[in-house]
Amino acid sequence: MSRVTARRRMRRITPGADIQRPDTLAVEEPLEIRVGGQSLTVTMRTPGNDIDLVHGFLLSEGIIGSAEDIVAARYCAGTDEQGRNTYNVLDLTLRTPVPVRTRSFLTTGACGLCGKTALDEVRTRTRFPLSPGGPAVDTSVLAAMPDRLRDRQSVFDATGGLHAAGLFTPGGRPLAVREDIGRHNAVDKVIGWALRETRVPARDLVLIVSGRASFELVQKAVMAGIPMLGAVSAPSSLAVDLAVDAGLTLVGFLRGDTMNIYSAPERINSDPEASLLA
Fold it and tell me: Where is this region: Disordered (predicted)?
């Protein structure tokens, strides 16, 4: 399998030095996803957990609803200059074939379509609509989740250049953490893990991301039936609109002991006596 880090020469200038040395970088390579031999999409990703990624991606796009919908997944032959397999083409066989060339994907925050159209599409396409209630999470437990996510970012420690996503129990126990050059890929990877572990709809889990909360990330959470999304940085306006519309609890600026709750606050419990582990 391809490496997740690579070494490149660079020149580092500081007030006291000017040196040239190798630097460790996160690998970014294309992954072509094929269905039945036909190209579906290409995403730039950090190699690793590709099977989880495609499961999460296809669930997010409404193409599959369970892991059993994928009969087989195999890497196609593809080599680099040294003749090594790049593992950058993954061909899937679905239990029920789909018309790949005419497939219409869910809109993203960069698509340019109006917010109402995007919200309606997610509402009508999700197989796991959120219902009122669900897990109650104590603020002290929620506040600790970003640090627990960060503790498991081994590739970020080496490169400083990856996003992370993690699925947690309401008591704060991390179940799956994935890293990727793309925040949407990191989320697809943890959702794919949950799908393969038969934990979708993930109505008892919390999704934490290391960056901002875009419409696309909220959409992925809604499609997987995840009731709560916490982000270290800011949400977008359309992300908040979708969270309100879907009944998802969206928390932004989750840093230290502060947080902003933008929707469905009833799932947040401010009990300071909370235990940190489920």
Answer: 1-20
